């Protein structure tokens, strides 16, 4: 089952006494999380399916309620557990210019017709996603994943086209 699940957040703690949980997640994912109806919680190396009955957002986290969990004691068992969604569900909800990290890692990076490196990782600095690019000279450079720099991504051709502004890959 793990192969088609992707982590979408973590149960941070309980909220109140009716079985609600404080849920940590990546910034700007509220629209996606509101569309989820089922998730899988990893507990003791086992994925357990849960259905979401409600989700609301606070400035720091989401408050999530699962069907069948109605008390503080029931949700406490899942404190600190990672929460997953089906990869197919995530792919269905990606925007046109959004990609899964595993799709980007390994792609060759080009400036014009010149291969300048390959993506070896993706991270986030709070403001934007960052591509970790291993250049031809074996340096690792962090490149903001923004439209002004990343001109196009072609998953099928395994190619990212960038605008290599001065100092970007040095």
Helical content, roughly? 10-25%
CATH-level-2 architecture of the largest domain: Beta Barrel
Name the CATH class of the largest domain: Mainly Beta
How many β-strands, per DSSP?
12
How does the major sheet shape up?
A: 6 strands, antiparallel, barrel
Count of individual helical segments: 4
List the helices and strands and how they pair.
Blueprint: E1 5-15, E2 20-24, H1 30-35, E3 38-43, E4 46-57, E5 62-66, H2 72-76, E6 82-86, H3 87-92, H4 101-104, E7 108-111, E8 114-124, E9 129-135, E10 140-144, E11 150-154, E12 159-162
Parallel strand pairs: 7-12
Antiparallel strand pairs: 1-2, 1-6, 2-5, 3-4, 3-6, 4-5, 7-8, 8-9, 9-10, 11-12
Describe this protein's structure.
The protein is mainly beta. It has 2 domains: 2-92, Elongation Factor Tu (Ef-tu), domain 3 (Beta Barrel), CATH 2.40.30.60; 101-162, SH3 type barrels. It is built from 4 helices and 12 strands, in the order E-E-H-E-E-E-H-E-H-H-E-E-E-E-E-E. The termini are far apart. The mean pLDDT is 88.
Please sum up the structure shown.
By secondary structure, this protein is mainly β. It has helices at residues 30-35, 72-76, 87-92, 101-104, and strands at residues 5-15, 20-24, 38-43, 46-57, 62-66, 82-86, 108-111, 114-124, 129-135, 140-144, 150-154, 159-162.
